[in-house]
Amino acid sequence: MNLSRFASRLRMAEEISKKVGSSSTASVADSSAATSAATNAAKSRWKILWPNSLRWIPTSTDYIIAAEKRLLSILKTPYVQEQVNIGSGPPGSKIRWFRSTSNESRYINTVTFDAKEGAPTLVMVHGYGASQGFFFRNFDALASRFRVIAIDQLGWGGSSRPDFTCRSTEETEAWFIDSFEEWRKTQNLSNFILLGHSFGGYVAAKYALKHPEHVQHLILVGSAGFSAEADAKSEWLTKFRATWKGAVLNHLWESNFTPQKLIRGLGPWGPGLVNRYTTARFGAYSEGTVLTEEEAKLLTDYVYHTLAAKASGELCLKYIFSFGAFARKPLLQSASEWKVPTTFIYGMNDWMNYQGAVEARKSMKVPCEIIRVPQGGHFVFIDNPSGFHSAVLYACRKFISQDSSHDQQLPDGLRLV
């Protein structure tokens, strides 16, 4: 009797436990659903209160490559984009980018355009704060005469962005020169025409000094690096540094504060600042042909992503140049060692002084020409594409012309210095 009564009570307890458990589970589920609904409602209210214009814009190498493809989609010439593996560094290398915190491979973002068989190879190197997409107005025209290859230098654009560990001018130059040489080896290139713009001109010239056997002809477009702070014309800089504004700017420069840091720091306002720059520089204040609305939109998007990505190659600035963009190791000092025939191209209104090239030519023992292009500033290849193309073709006339006597004439509008 007692056992029967105990068994009955046990069954009653189990039933009560099941009901309580079921009720508890339902309560938890209801609570979870309520929490999820509240979270979604909060997100919706946040989106309403925090408009798109105030949200941070993400970026990465993938975003850069996607923006590059959109920009180059307006071209007519087919091309191949690839990430060229340059490895983690040659054995025994003393260059810091080869010895970074990891042994992972590095990649150089490369675009190669279709060309006629036997066409000379033209390798194009961008300047500071830029990437190979800046040549978008030139690829179609140049690809009709050359096998055009354009790259993003290590630490720029869609290339790998290792931690920048250089601490001297020598190490910084090696970062760019040696990574370019590793890329050249991987691509099995030799006897090519090397074109560099601005800081890219500095790198191209330093590369040609170290590896002249691979370069047929050197084209330096608005090249940096031909003036030093010791030049007589730098007196204004000494006076400016004595002012409080000059002292602040000089401190920022030596602290390696770059324009890209400003873009990143502005967060959601970064794209707007880039848009104002591109529309002003290549629109209202253009030296020549203004960008179309589509070109301006695509270029702005591309430029923003290349500037806002992880800091890497941009940190070279203070090691290569002193405040005022004066080279710490001026190319003028190496002019007598030049072994590659060279053509300098400057826009008529380029802020980079062509007189540096004039001085360098006096010491050169190789053929050297200086061409000035009308209606062009520092970005002469964007300002006046047709004039720029004429200058490049003239510089390379002996490589592309079948009738050398015909191509000896300087195209109309260009000026030889």
TrEMBL record:
Subcellular location: Cytoplasm
Enzyme class: transferase
GO terms for biological process, alphabetical: lipid homeostasis; phosphatidic acid biosynthetic process
Catalytic activity of the protein: a 1-acyl-sn-glycero-3-phosphate + an acyl-CoA = a 1,2-diacyl-sn-glycero-3-phosphate + CoA
Cellular component GO terms held in the UniProt record: cytoplasm
Keyword Cell cycle: no
Gene Ontology MF terms: 1-acylglycerol-3-phosphate O-acyltransferase activity; phospholipase A2 activity
EC number: 2.3.1.51
Entry keyword set: Acyltransferase, Cytoplasm, Hydrolase, Lipid biosynthesis, Lipid metabolism, Phospholipid biosynthesis, Phospholipid metabolism, Transferase
Keyword Cytoplasm listed: yes
UniProt superkingdom: Eukaryota
Domain AB hydrolase-1: 120-385
Family: Belongs to the peptidase S33 family. ABHD4/ABHD5 subfamily.
Protein name from the UniProt record: 1-acylglycerol-3-phosphate O-acyltransferase
Lineage of producing organism: Eukaryota, Viridiplantae, Streptophyta, Embryophyta, Tracheophyta
